[in-house]
Amino acid sequence: MLTITGASAVPAIRRFVHWVADPDVASVPQVRARVRVALEVWVVPLDIADVLLLAVSELVGNVVRHAGAGRMRVGVAPGAGRLRLDVADRGAGLPRLPPPRARRSTRRSESGRGPLIVQLMTS
C-alpha cells in the first residue's frame, strides 16, 4: 500500500477503482493509462498525479519482473486528503529495499531500486 498525503491536494471523493491483469510487460502502460484517467476524473493536481503514476509504473514493473504466473491487482482510492495505491500479486515474496550502497555489488546496482524510488517519492 502507498499513501500520498496532502490535505488540499485530493478532493474528498469516495470512490475506488481497481483492475486485475496478467503480469506481463504490456500491462505496465495499460495500468498506468487507466490510473491516469482516474486521476484526471478526480481532478488530482498534476504534481501529485505524476508521483502516483511513477509509483504505479515502478510497482507494476516489479510485479512483472518478479511475480511470475498469476494475476496482479491494482487499486487506487482517493479520500480524506490522501490517495491510496495498492499493487498486489500472488507471489510469496515481499518487495525489499536494496542494501546500503557500501554492501552492493556493481553487478546488482541496476536492480532493486523500484521499492526505494517509491519510498523516497512518497515519504
Fold and architecture overview:
The protein is an alpha+beta fold. The chain has 3 helices and 4 strands. The chain has helices at about 25-40, 45-65, 115-120, and strands at about 1-5, 15-20, 70-80, 80-90. It has a 4-stranded antiparallel beta sheet, with helices on one face. Strand 3 (about 70-80) and strand 4 (about 80-90) form a beta hairpin. The longest helix has 21 residues, at about 45-65. It is globular. Mean pLDDT is about 75; it is low at about 5-15.
How is the secondary structure organized here?
Layout: E1 2-5, E2 17-21, H1 27-41, H2 46-66, E3 72-79, E4 82-89, H3 114-122
Antiparallel strand pairs: 1-4, 2-3, 3-4
Helix pairs in contact: 1-2, 2-3
Query: What's the alpha carbon Rg, rounded to whole Å?
Result: 15 Å
Biggest sheet strand order reads 1-4-3-2
Low-confidence parts lasting 5 or more residues at pLDDT below 50? 6-14
Shape: globular
Kindly state the percentage of residues in helix: 25-40%
Write a concise keyword list for the protein shown above.
123 residues, 20% strand, alpha+beta, 4-stranded antiparallel β-sheet
Write a concise synopsis of the structure shown.
The protein has 123 residues and is α+β, with helices and mostly antiparallel strands. Helices cover 37% and strands 20% of the residues.
